[in-house]
Design a protein that fits this description.
It is a single chain. With 92 residues, this protein is an alpha+beta fold. 16% of the residues lie in helices and 49% in strands. The chain has 2 helices and 4 strands. The chain starts with a helix and ends with a strand. It holds the Pfam family YchJ_M-like.
């Protein structure tokens, strides 16, 4: 989750797509500069996602400022594919 947040902050679309579940991944992301900059990530809760699990959940809050200020809270589902964790879906 933290690496995906860092990739989102820096606009690394390739990394975000590589770490997205192929079953739910969009063809392209639109990370154009909209005047909003994320600067902090708080992990609120985790469920599973350990060494013996194939799925996991991370609940987080990401804070932003710039053209608007606030935060986005999401509960994201991840799954393991070939020893790599990938983002599957998220509920806002």
């Amino acid at each position: 989750m933290r690496s995906r947040f860092s990739a989102f902050v820096t606009g690394d679309e390739d990394y975000l797509l590589r770490t997205w579940d192929p079953e739910t991944r969009p063809e392209r992301l639109h990370l154009e500069d909209n005047g909003i900059h994320f600067y902090r990530l708080d992990i609120i809760d985790t469920v599973d996602g350990g060494p013996l699990d194939d799925t996991g959940i991370v609940e987080f809050e990401a804070f932003y400022k710039g053209a608007a200020a606030g935060s986005q809270r999401e509960r994201s589902q991840f799954r393991r594919t070939q020893c790599q964790w990938v983002y599957s879906t998220g509920d806002f």
